[in-house]
Design goal:
904 residues; binds (3S)-3,7-diaminoheptanoic acid; 20% strand; binds zinc ion; 30 helices; 5-stranded mixed beta sheet
C-alpha cells in the first residue's frame, strides 16, 4: 500500500486546532516544469485552547519539496523542524518566539510543486493548457504546508505570476486589487478575499480564457459583476449558465433572504475535473459538462443539470462558505442543505412534481442501494479513512431529505425562521449539523431529539402499514410498523421520527377530513396532514370517516423510507388517476408496474409462459389517451408528468428492490412487458409521437422539455416494433433534428435496436455523429455513452475497442465516466454477464486509475462492491476481482478503504 498509514479517523477524536491563521499571503510563480509557492502565514496559538497548549506546530503537506522555511524572518534549520510524507512540524516554538506564540508570528516558506505531473486533479494541476485548483476536501495540502482543516479560517491575499502570452488571465478569490507586467514577458495579479475562509475554498486559475459578462443588482441595490470564463470556442455556450446564475441569485434573496457579498462572481469551465463543480469563494470552478450548454450540442437533461449545478454552487456561498463545516464529518451540513436548496430552486423553475419524481427515483435507486451495501454510513458519519470517499449519495441526497423532513415537521414559516437564525447566528463560523438542528428547534419550538437519529443511524427505514375501516364506528385505523435493517457497525437501530404526509380518498377521489381520535371536537380537520411516526408500532385512528377510504400515504415522499401497503391493483389505479398528490399518482403507477413485473418474474423463474396483466395495459391506454387529448389542446395535464407515467421502473430500481438480483430475469421480463405495451398501443404511440412534433424554435423551458420527453418516450416504444418504417422514422429524426435532445434520443434507439435492419442505419448514424461532433469534447462523451449502454451482446468488446479510440483519454474523468462508468453502472445485462469478463475489465481499470487518479478509481469500483446482492456464481466472480484489487502492492487510501470495507 502506498499509504501504509491508511488509518481510521474518528469524529469522537475531534479537537480544536492548536493554532489559528489570521491571514494567509500566497505568491505563485507558475512555470512550465515547476511552480514555486511562497506562503506567509500569520499565526498564533488558539486562544480558545486553554490548558492544552501546544509547543509544536504541525502543518499538512504532501507531494512537495520544501525550499526554505522562516519564522519571523529567521531561517529555520532542521534542528527546529522535521518533515515526513504528510506533514511539517516546527518544534520548540515557545523558546523561539516567547510571547509572540500567543500574540502573533509569521511562518514563511517556499515550496516547489509540479502541477504538470499532478494527475490526481487535486491541489494545483493543469487541465489542458490552463492551471487550475481543486482543494476540497484536502487538496490544499498539495499546494503548500498548511493547517488543512475547515475550522481554520483566514483572510487570503494571493499573487500569481505567469507568462503573459500563455496565461493572459490570472484569477483567484475575492477582488483583484493590483496587477502589472514584468520585464521578462511575465505578468502578475494580486487578489484579496476579505472574507475569512477555510483553505478548501481557495482557488487559482491561469490560462488563455475568454469571458461573457453580465450584471446583477442585489436586493440592497449593489451592482455585482458576473463573469463566466471559457475557452474561445465555447463562448457561445455560456448564456444558459449566466441566466441560471441570475435566477439563482434572485431566488436566494426571495426564498432565503440571502444576498451576495463580493462585488464580482466568477465561474471558470475546465475540461479535466473529478466532479461536477466547486464552490470556491467568488471563483467557482466547473466541469465543462456542468456549465456549457447550447441547443445544438446539449440535451435537455444537460441543460437542467447546468441550471441545477450553477445554482447549487452559488447557494453554497451561504450554506457552506459564510457558514462552513467544523470538520469533514459535518459535510452534509453544507451538502445536504445545499442539495435541498437547489432542488427547491429547480422545482420553482420547472415542474415541481416532475422534479420530485426524478429526485426520488434517483434516491430510491442509488442512495437506497448505497445504504444497503458495505459502504453504508450515517448522514453524519462517525469515522472514515479517506474523506474523498464520503462525497456520497447519503451525504448529498439523503442529507437533503433530512432537511426536507425538518421542514415537513416544523412547517414552512418556522423553517424560514430557522434558516434565518442559523445564518445569522453562525455567519463566519465553522459549525456542526447539531448547530443546524438547534437553530431549527429554537425557531420552531419543536423537539427534534428523536429526529436527530436520522443523522447518526445508517440504513433505509421500512414502514409496514395496514388499514382497517370500521363502518359502524365510522373510524379508519392505520397501523404503522417501522423497522430498519442492520448496517455495517450498527446492528441495532432505535426508531426514527418519520413525518408521514397522508390523506384519505373518498369514493370520488376527494380528500376526506382527517380528525384523529382524542383530538378536540371542532379542531380544524384538514384533507391532508403529517403524522408523527415515532414508535416501532403506532396506531392512528381517524374518526368521522363516513365511507371506506383509500389511503394516500407518504405524499410527496415525505420521508426517505420504503413503504409497504397492500394495495389491490384497482386501488393503485384509483390513486393513480384520482389522488390530489401528483407524486403519489406517479408512485401508484410505478407500484402497479412493479407488481406486474414481480408476478411475471415468478412465472419466468418457473419457466411458465408470460402474460401481461390487462390492468396495466389499460392503465397505459388511459395515460396515452390523456396525453393525446392534452396534446390536442386540452392542456390539463403536465406533459412531463405524462412522459414519466409511460416509463416502466428501471432495471436498476427493480434490482434495488430485489433480495437477490436476477439480472437476466429482470431484463427479460421488463423488455417483455415494454414490447407488449408497444404492441398493444402502437397506434396511440404513433399518434402522440406526431402530435408532439414541434416546429417552434428550440427552448430549454419546461414546456419544450416536456414535449420532447413525451415524444421520445413514444419513439422508444415505436422502435420496439419490427416494422422498418419506424427505423426509418427514427433515422429521419436523427438526421433532421436541430436540437441535441432529439438527435441523442434517436441515436440511442438506433444503437439499441435489435432488429437486423437497424445495423446499417446504426453504423451510418454513429459514423456521421462522430464526424459531425468530433471537435466538441462533451458531445463525443455522449457518443461514447450511447455505445456503452447498448444492451446488445458484444458491448463489452466494443467498449474495450473504444478505449483505443483517438478521442478516448483515461486521464480525463469525463471520458472515463462516459464510457467505462456508463457501461458498468447502466448496462447490467452486459456488465453482469456470467462469464465475469466485465468484472475483470472493471478491476483492470480500477487498478490502472488507482495510481493516477485515486478518487476516480475508488468511485469506479462501486458496482463491484454490491457483490452480495447477486447469486452464488456471480458473487464468486465479483469477489475474486475485489480480492485481486486488494492484493495490489500500491493501493491508494481511497481504493483501499472501499475494497477492504467491501470484503469484510
Ligand atoms: N463541494 C464540491 C465537492 C467537492 C468534492 C471533493 N472530492 C462540490 C459540491 O458539492 O458543490
Ligand atoms: Zn455542494
Amino acid at each position: 500500500m502506498r499509504d501504509a498509514q491508511a488509518k481510521t479517523i474518528y469524529l469522537k477524536d475531534y479537537q480544536l486546532p492548536a493554532f489559528v491563521i489570521e491571514l494567509t499571503e500566497l505568491h505563485f510563480e507558475l512555470g512550465e516544469t515547476a511552480t514555486h509557492v511562497r506562503s506567509r502565514l500569520h499565526l498564533r496559538r488558539n486562544p480558545e485552547l486553554l490548558g492544552n497548549q501546544q509547543d509544536a506546530l504541525r502543518l499538512d503537506g504532501q507531494d512537495m519539496q520544501l525550499v526554505w522555511l522562516k519564522l519571523n524572518d529567521q531561517t529555520l534549520t532542521e534542528q527546529n523542524y522535521s518533515t515526513d510524507e504528510e506533514s511539517l512540524t516546527v518544534f520548540g516554538l515557545s523558546a523561539l518566539l516567547g510571547e509572540a506564540i500567543d500574540t502573533g508570528f509569521v511562518l514563511e516558506c517556499e515550496t516547489l510543486i509540479k502541477p504538470q505531473e499532478n494527475t490526481s486533479l487535486e491541489g494545483l494541476y493543469k487541465s489542458q493548457k490552463m492551471f487550475c485548483t481543486q482543494c476540497e476536501a484536502e487538496g490544499f495540502r498539495k499546494i503548500t504546508y498548511y493547517i488543512d482543516r475547515p475550522d481554520v479560517m483566514a483572510k487570503f491575499v494571493t499573487t500569481i505570476v505567469a507568462d503573459k502570452e500563455r496565461y493572459p488571465v490570472l484569477l483567484s478569490n475575492g477582488n483583484n486589487i493590483a496587477s502589472g507586467d514584468l520585464s521578462d514577458g511575465r505578468h502578475w495579479a494580486t487578489w484579496e478575499d476579505p472574507f475569512r475562509k477555510p483553505c478548501y475554498l481557495f482557488a487559482l486559475v491561469a490560462g488563455e480564457l475568454r469571458f461573457i459578462e453580465d450584471h446583477f443588482v442585489t436586493c440592497s441595490g449593489r451592482d455585482i459583476t458576473l463573469r463566466i470564463f471559457v475557452e474561445d470556442k465555447d463562448l457561445d455556450k455560456c448564456d444558459h449558465a449566466m441566466l441560471s446564475l441570475k435566477n439563482a441569485m434572485r431566488w436566494d434573496e426571495e426564498v432565503y433572504g440571502r444576498e451576495y457579498d463580493l462585488d464580482i462572481f466568477m465561474i471558470v469551465a475546465v475540461d479535466d475535473f473529478n466532479m461536477g463543480a466547486m464552490e470556491n469563494k467568488g471563483l467557482n470552478i466547473f466541469n465543462t459538462s456542468c456549465v456549457l450548454a447550447n441547443p445544438a450540442t446539449t440535451t435537455d437533461m444537460a441543460f437542467q443539470r447546468v441550471e441545477a449545478v450553477v445554482a447549487h454552487e452559488y447557494f453554497h456561498n451561504w450554506s457552506g462558505n459564510r457558514v462552513t463545516c467544523r470538520d469533514w464529518f459535518q459535510l452534509s451540513l453544507k451538502e445536504g442543505f445545499t442539495v435541498y436548496r437547489d432542488a427547491e430552486f429547480s422545482a420553482d423553475m420547472g415542474s415541481r412534481t416532475v422534479k420530485r419524481v426524478e429526485d426520488v427515483s434517483f434516491l430510491r435507486t442509488q442512495q437506497f442501494a448505497e445504504d444497503a451495501g458495505p459502504m453504508a454510513h450515517p448522514v453524519r458519519p462517525d469515522s472514515f479513512m479517506e474523506i474523498s470517499n464520503f462525497y456520497t449519495l447519503t451525504i448529498y441526497e439523503k442529507g437533503a431529505e433530512v432537511v426536507r423532513m425538518i421542514r415537513e415537521l416544523i412547517g414552512p414559516e418556522n423553517f424560514r425562521k430557522g434558516s434565518d437564525l442559523y445564518f445569522e447566528r453562525h455567519d463566519g463560523q465553522a459549525v456542526t449539523t447539531e448547530d443546524f438542528v438547534l437553530a431549527m428547534e429554537e425557531a420552531s419550538g419543536t423537539d427534534l431529539t428523536q429526529f436527530r437519529r436520522w443523522y447518526t443511524q445508517a440504513g433505509t427505514p421500512q414502514l409496514h402499514i395496514t388499514g382497517h375501516y370500521d363502518a359502524d364506528a365510522q373510524t379508519y385505523e392505520l397501523l404503522v410498523r417501522q423497522s430498519c435493517p442492520p448496517t455495517p457497525e450498527q446492528s441495532f437501530k432505535e426508531p426514527f421520527h418519520i413525518p408521514l404526509r397522508m390523506g384519505l380518498l373518498d369514493a370520488d377521489g376527494y380528500d376526506m377530513p382527517l380528525g384523529l381520535e382524542g383530538e378536540k371536537r371542532g379542531s380544524p380537520t384538514l384533507g391532508e396532514r403529517v403524522l408523527d411516526v415515532t414508535k416501532p408500532i403506532q396506531k392512528f385512528v381517524f374518526t368521522g370517516v363516513t365511507s371506506k377510504p383509500v389511503p394516500s400515504l407518504l405524499r410527496g415522499f415525505s420521508a426517505p423510507v420504503k413503504l409497504h401497503f397492500d394495495y389491490t391493483r384497482d386501488e393503485l389505479l384509483f390513486v393513480m388517476t384520482r389522488d390530489s398528490d401528483g407524486f403519489n399518482r406517479w408512485n401508484a403507477a410505478q407500484e402497479m408496474a412493479i407488481n406486474v413485473i414481480h408476478e411475471l418474474l415468478e412465472q419466468h423463474q418457473q419457466g411458465l409462459p408470460l402474460m401481461v396483466d390487462e390492468g396495466l395495459v389499460r392503465a397505459f391506454a388511459d395515460v396515452l389517451q390523456s396525453a393525446i387529448d392534452d396534446a390536442r389542446g386540452a392542456q390539463v395535464l403536465d406533459q412531463a408528468m405524462l412522459a414519466q407515467l409511460l416509463v416502466l421502473p428501471s432495471e436498476a430500481y427493480l434490482s434495488e428492490l430485489a433480495a437477490q438480483i436476477d439480472v437476466d430475469g429482470i431484463h427479460h421480463v421488463r423488455e417483455f412487458i415494454a414490447n407488449q405495451l408497444a404492441l398493444s398501443h402502437v397506434n396511440a404511440f404513433a399518434q402522440l409521437y406526431t402530435l408532439c412534433q414541434s416546429s417552434n424554435l428550440y427552448k430549454a423551458d419546461a414546456a419544450g422539455i416536456a414535449k420532447r420527453a413525451l415524444k421520445n418516450v413514444c419513439l422508444s416504444y415505436l422502435m420496439r416494433q419490427p416494422e422498418a418504417d419506424w427505423l426509418e422514422t427514427c433515422y429521419q429524426q436523427y438526421l433532421a433534428a436541430e436540437n441535441m435532445t432529439d438527435v441523442d434520443a434517436a441515436l440511442r434507439f438506433l444503437v439499441n435496436s435489435r432488429y437486423p435492419k437497424a445495423a446499417v442505419l446504426r453504423s451510418q448514424a454513429l459514423a456521421d455523429f462522430y464526424a459531425r461532433w468530433k471537435h466538441e469534447s462533451l458531445v463525443v462523451n455522449q457518443w461514447f455513452t450511447v455505445q456503452a449502454i447498448a444492451s446488445r451482446p458484444g458491448t463489452l468488446q466494443h467498449v474495450k475497442t473504444l478505449m483505443h479510440h483517438e478521442a478516448f483519454d483515461m486521464r480525463n474523468p469525463n471520458k472515463v465516466r462516459s464510457l467505462i462508468s456508463a457501461f458498468c453502472n447502466t448496462n447490467a445485462i452486459n456488465f453482469h454477464h456470467v462469464s465475469g469478463d466485465a468484472y475483470e475489465f472493471l478491476a483492470d481499470q480500477v487498478i490502472a486509475l488507482n495510481l493516477t487518479n485515486p478518487q476516480i478509481a475508488s468511485r469506479l469500483l462501486t458496482p463491484l462492491t454490491r457483490w452480495k446482492k447477486f447469486g452464488p456464481a456471480r458473487q464468486v466472480l465479483m469477489k475474486a476481482q475485489l480480492e485481486r484489487i486488494a492484493a495490489q502492492p500500491e493501493l491508494s487510501k481511497d481504493v483501499f478503504e472501499v475494497v477492504s470495507k467491501s470484503l469484510r
